[in-house]
Give the backbone structure.
Amino acid sequence: MINDEYKVIIFSIIAGVAVWVFDAIMDTIIFYHLPFYSLLIADIPSHEIFIRVVILISFIIYGFIISRYVIRAKESETRYRQLFGNINDAIFVASLESNNMPGKFLEVNEETCKRLGYSREELSKLSPADISSPENILKIPMRIQKLMEDGRILFETVHVAKDGRHIPVEVNVHLLDFKGKPTVLAIARDITARRQAQEALEKAHEELEQRVIERTAELTEANRQLLREMEEHHLTSEKLRESEVRFRTLFQTAGSLIMFIDAAGCIREFNREAELAFGYSRGEVVGKDVVELLVPEAARELAAAGEKKVLDGRIIRGSEFSLKLRDGTERMFLWNANPLLDSQGQSTGIIVVGHDISERKQAEEAIKSERQRLFSLLEGLPAYICLYASDYTCSFVNRYFRERFGDPGNRPCYEFLHGCKILCEQCPTFRAFEDQTPQEFEWTTADGYTYQLYDYPFVDVDGSSTVLEMGIDITARKHAEEALKESQENLRRLYNRLIRVQEDERRRISQELHDEMGQTLLGMKLRISGVKEKLGKLKPRKEQKGMVADCDQLLQFLQAMVENIRQLSRDLSPAILEDLGLSAAIKNLCDEFCRNHGNIENCACTIEEIDNLLPPPDQINLYRIIQESFTNIGKHSEANRLALTLMRKKNRLAFDLWDNGVGFDPEEILRRHPGAKGLGLATLDERVRTLGGALRIESKKGEGTRLWFEVPLKDRG
């Protein structure tokens, strides 16, 4: 095979020869009109030879130059391929989509395929998001944004291999311009070993902090053992030296402050953590009195007394003590002090291990202050507050509680509030503890006070489960509600009495209209008919004809008046209700309404046999409800279709009336001033309530109206 550089040179020579031949052709055709062969080789003009030779040489030179660039590019590509393929880190190139999200992989090295378990063909169909763990996919847009701003980004993430393995990696990403398009070049380094080492180091550090006090005591014992072994076995000196190195390493790398103090109270050892905490170097403190150097003047007597106790053989655990730093400030420390004993068991010094707890103490004081502020606020609330522990004793009660119920002491709530020996049945506070959900309920005390109680479960600062209970005295409100309820019942009884009186009065007026006014008008009608007959028997005269016509008009007027009085009598007291029953009366009312309103084209009435379901007063009430509903439809609805359904549903009577009229907005009616609402809907609603039901209204402007309700039939006969 011919190398690429030789191909370029040969192509350049061929191009130069082609230009030579082309120039000869042009000279033959245009300039010299000589044979082509003569102008090509044999008889070439001198200036043409110069031009052609220069062009040919130029093409050859250009070919050599281009071949050198090809060689260098090929060498560069070879080095890139070797680096790209042999590097131990995964390298991949991905496009950047128009939405600034990484697209498919354009190129990956062999390490990427080996690490993730995919082939190059499989990876070319995937994107960086496809190999990222779910929790890291959401971070991709933020990282792309930072990459677009800075041009490069370094971060840690987790890749997911084909077999599901999660591989922690450190990724170094650069933004490149490839063929005029933004492209992402990423180098991913496997940091699994580093992560494991970090986790192991952190675990060892935690274990070291937890065991530092115990380990210090063990080291003390080991030191005594080493001293005895040194006296008894001189051949073990090397092992002793190794043990000393381990001790020093532990002493200096421990996460706690460690000091060795001799019997005279002078510092003999001072580890790195102590240097950082106090601001002194080891050389500055060794040999100096620890009390004089580190203990504030006001506490020196107490410190000296504690030092003496440890030298006498006592062990001090968890002692909180304030010490002075180099800059003069004071910080709080938690100390453990053990005596250092020699081979004879005599105390030769003290080993002190401590932790700086200043921040913790400040946090505790802040919590205590906030807790005190909260309790001060709860003390002044006009409601009782108590905090129940898990055993139902009160850890806190406010002043209102104490004034109302007394001091509960350590007694559980069911004992001092209810006088029980065991937890109350269906206890809401128990549900608050059990379900950890707020509870709301009412409680009436033995002396008649009623409280609205709210139980809120939470976890206290010490991790214990606690319930805060707030009780608001609603005795006055309950009395007011009962008085209002009684007033409403009295009003309803008064309303029912008024309805009965109204029906009795209607019946009396109807009877009088029928018996007295009807008979009087009938008598007038008969007498006018007699006058008309007498006028007809007399000798005809011109004025008699006018009197006869007047009699006819009077008779028609009286007939119309009689019909109106009969209709009024029926409306006031529907005799059909008593004669034929409720079902027939309602059907007759429906038919009569449709006859009297010519605009009603379709009137569907479905009425079951309900005569014996309601007592007579309730039958009249139901009849009036339907009568008033029809009146409202006739006055306001402009409907041409309506449907009435009245049927029994188990132990209830269901009423449903619909029309397709102009409708109205119920909310607008309710928002009106009471004087502007009218009595129609209010009367219907009260009549339905009297029957034990609740009136429901559905209506929209232009979409008709629907009224429905159900009334109970229990104990109705």
Summary: The longest strand covers residues 166-178. The two ends are 116 Å apart (CA to CA). The CA atoms of residues 650 and 713 lie 9 Å apart.
